[in-house]
Amino acid sequence: AATSKINFFNISKFLVIIMKCIVLVILATVLLISCSKGSADENIFHNKEIDDITIGLKNYAIEKGKFIGNLMRDGMFDNLQVHNGSTDNILKTDYNAIVLGNKMKMSNLLRTRPQDPFNVKIEDINTDIIDKFVNYADKHNMRKRGHVMIWYKQIPSWLTNEAPNWSAQQVYDFSKSYILALSAYCKGKIDEWDVLNEGIVNNSFRQGTWYDIINTQANINGDIGYYNYFAYLFKWARQGDSDVELFYNDYNIEAFGTSKNNFMRTFVKKLKLDYSAPIDGVGLQSHFKINLTTDDFISRLGKTIDDLGESDFIANITELDIRICNGDIQTLDDQKKAYKNIVSTAFSRDNCKTILIWGPSDNDSWINSHFEGCGQATPHDENFNKKPAYFGIKEALMDL
Ligand code: G3I
Asked: Which atom of ligand 1 is least distant from the CA of 148?
């Protein structure tokens, strides 16, 4: 009995040891699996970080000799770290060209009335804005687009009040001194300027404040009419900086053959050939509603770029966004298709070097506040995550 008791004791002790070993092996295995899974996740995270930092859209664009850009919104301009740095991160990672959404418009650059508006001096211009923009862009090797010299919107209130009473010569003097001062200050700092923005409505010139003044009165040299005045704008901009690229920029001019497109093409060619305006290119703004972006529409955009190219114009896409509105049946995947088609159509042409998108994310887009029931217009969503559209652009760049 004593022996069998000892045997039983030994056997049960042996079994306990075996059980403990099994438990240990299981624990070790679980630990090993979770450890290796942890490091895999870590790798994925690490790779994602590397991917985000090094393989943004711009890397594909650089490889193909193109510029893909975006705008810096006012909120970010005032505080680079807005939204916990998300917008900053998108701009730095994905884009090698940049424009200010609002800050370089006349309402900001010439907010205070110059002592003599007919002899604007560099001291009258808020050059701090330009410096801050240039510093940011240079730090991240971005091409810098100046937007905008002469536009009928977003002008300072003192000018809105005074301008209707000016003579043609005063309009010339003001415009000349402003453009000369601005372009000379920006010489070598800004790569391309929108000299004139949105001067056309349908198939004629926009009838803004200065329309009657310039078209009915001559200046002291006897020059009269918008063709003369617009040509001078480009000549003054060139006088300030001989290397900068100079653009006429507008919306609804993208599709070949519409009345505004026809007028625009006639206008810029005549300006260059008959009035010797040093105009280098046309900015096709490209604010599109999703249901407009059919294959036919996008191929007509390509035809516009070709037509301008035949007359030696650059044709860049300067403010691309594709909004989706309540009631539209199109999805984010349709938007991806449209972005992809536009980027590959435009960039397959040598005279289209730059595509700028108008908003780093749906959180930073003007669409939300200007088109009720519309939004989702950019490649990143409200939470700064990449949307299908982002990958559409990426695929188009990779396929170039
Ligand atoms: O400056 C005031 C500010 O003082 C006020 O607190 C705030 C309250 O809403 O409004 C501010 O002004 C806004 C301004 O942007 C600056 O944020 C205007 O209301 C708003 O209408 C203005 O919108 C800009 C729009 O141009 C004006 O026409 C958009 O941000 C800007 O993206 C848009 O950009 C234009 C291009 O320059 C030319 N092509 C078309 C494009 C889209 O409209």
From this structure: 37
